[in-house]
From TrEMBL:
Organism taxonomic ancestry: Bacteria, Pseudomonadati, Pseudomonadota, Alphaproteobacteria, Sphingomonadales
SMART domains per UniProt: CAT
Protein name: Chloramphenicol acetyltransferase
Lineage top rank: taxon: Bacteria
Pfam family name, one: CAT
Stored PANTHER family: SLR0299 PROTEIN (PTHR38474)
Active site: H183
Length: 217
C-alpha cells in the first residue's frame, strides 16, 4: 500500500484557493526556466556517468523537496504523498518510446544502479505507454535536440495534479526546464522553490552522490 497523509481541508490554509481553481476547466500553468547545467554536465563526464540520468535524479530530488508537488486528489480526499517517483520515456529502436518507472533513492549511485538496466531493456522493446493507477509520481521527459524557450504539455485529463516536466538541449551552459503545475495546489512561490532547489543541485552536483533521507522509506 502506498503511504500518504490526508489533508484536513477544513483547517487547510489553501482551501479557498483550492476550491477556486478546482472550478477551472484547466487550472494548470506552464513555466519554463533556463538552468545553469555546465557543471552538472562536466561532473557527469568526469565521472563517466549518464548526463541524462544525473539530470533526471536532480529533478527527482528537487521535486520531492516541495510538498505542494506531492499533493493530489484521491476520491473525495486531498492527500499528500511523503515521496513521489518519476516516470520517464526512453527511445526505442524504432524511434518510439517506452516509459520506465524510477524510484526516488537516497543517492545517485543507488538511482543509476536501479535505472540503467530498465533503460537498456526499454531500448530493445516495443514502443508502448506505461499505465499506472496511482498518482504518486510525476512525468519528466528529455528533449535533447531542442533548446526551447517555451512548451506546453499533454494532459490525460484537464486539472490533473501530476506535474509534467520537460528539459531540453544544453546550449551555452544552460538547459531549458519547463514544468506544468496545477494551480489548485501550486502557486508561483511553490514553483519557484522547485526551480531554486534544482538550480542548487545543478550547481553542486557532488551533493547528488551524498546520501539524503527519503521520506516514507
Amino acid at each position: 500500500m502506498i503511504a500518504y497523509k490526508i489533508i484536513d481541508t477544513q483547517t487547510w490554509p489553501r482551501k479557498a484557493h483550492f476550491d477556486f481553481y478546482r472550478q477551472f476547466a484547466n487550472p494548470c500553468f506552464n513555466l519554463c526556466v533556463p538552468i545553469e547545467a555546465q557543471r552538472l554536465y562536466e561532473t557527469a563526464k568526469d565521472n563517466g556517468v549518464s548526463f541524462f540520468q544525473l539530470a533526471l535524479y536532480a529533478i527527482l530530488r528537487a521535486t520531492n523537496s516541495v510538498p505542494q508537488l506531492k499533493q493530489r486528489v484521491l476520491g473525495d480526499k486531498v492527500i499528500e504523498y511523503p515521496n513521489i517517483e518519476v516516470m520517464t520515456p526512453i527511445m526505442t529502436a524504432n524511434e518510439g518510446f517506452r516509459q520506465i518507472w524510477c524510484e526516488n533513492t537516497a543517492d545517485f549511485l543507488s538511482f543509476t544502479k536501479a535505472v540503467t538496466p530498465q533503460i537498456e531493456i526499454a531500448k530493445t522493446t516495443e514502443a508502448a505507454p506505461l499505465r499506472v493507477q496511482k498518482e504518486n509520481f510525476f512525468c519528466a521527459s528529455c528533449l535533447p535536440w531542442v533548446h526551447f524557450s517555451a512548451i506546453t504539455h499533454a494532459e490525460f485529463s484537464f486539472g490533473s495534479a501530476v506535474p509534467t516536466l520537460t528539459w531540453g538541449k544544453l546550449k551555452d551552459g544552460k538547459i531549458p526546464v519547463a514544468c506544468k503545475f496545477n494551480h489548485a495546489f501550486v502557486d508561483g512561490l511553490h514553483a519557484s522553490r522547485f526551480f531554486m532547489q534544482l538550480e542548487a543541485l545543478f550547481a553542486d552536483p557532488d551533493s547528488l552522490w551524498r546520501e539524503h533521507p527519503v521520506e516514507g522509506r
